[in-house]
Write a structure and sequence with these properties.
It is a single chain. This protein has 219 residues and is mostly helical. The longest helix has 17 residues.
Length: 219
Amino acid sequence: MAQVRVNPFQVLAACAADWSRYGRLLDAASREAVRATLAELRSAGANQEATAERAARTLVGALPAEVAAELVREEEPGRFAGAPSAILHEGYGATDLCMLVLDGNPMVGPVLGAIRKRLLSAPAEPWSESADPRLIVLSDEDGRRRLPAFQFEAGTMPWQIVLEIGTVLRADLDPWGAADWWLSGTTWWDGTPADLLGHGRDAEMLGAARALVTADEEA
């Protein structure tokens, strides 16, 4: 990579677009090195060029030569023109790679990223270590964790039915899927399941959640 002029944001974006493949090619030490440079990139603020280049070099240097060559392409001299967030590959950007590697957040790219933004637009409370582990926890593009506010009956007291359905939907393993269930309109009811909280529909919602899981298991 040292002999080739490249746009590091483009390299990181291309890696994000196919991280399931590239990530498998990194050993534990290399993955940790990539993680460290991406953490630096996330905290670099507006001046990201040097940090992005270091992250891209670390990543490319850890991959097999023939695979690394796929991520490297020649660039024109003004390679840092434009905002880094606008440099995309198939709808993925460097920020998406940070979320994948640092947070294990799968909601990236042009399709799932749009769902992430929609779910994060709902009112939320900051996450704390004292939060019930059955609650849905989402993270934004900077890795900040939050608790969708619909989960709370009053103050920090969660609705019991939210905890029960969270267990059914395995919100600990798939918080985005659980949040989408609560915050999306359905053909079952007018509005969303979250709109039904406090209206005596708990058994009905629990049954719907169980039916969904059973259907998924049988598919």
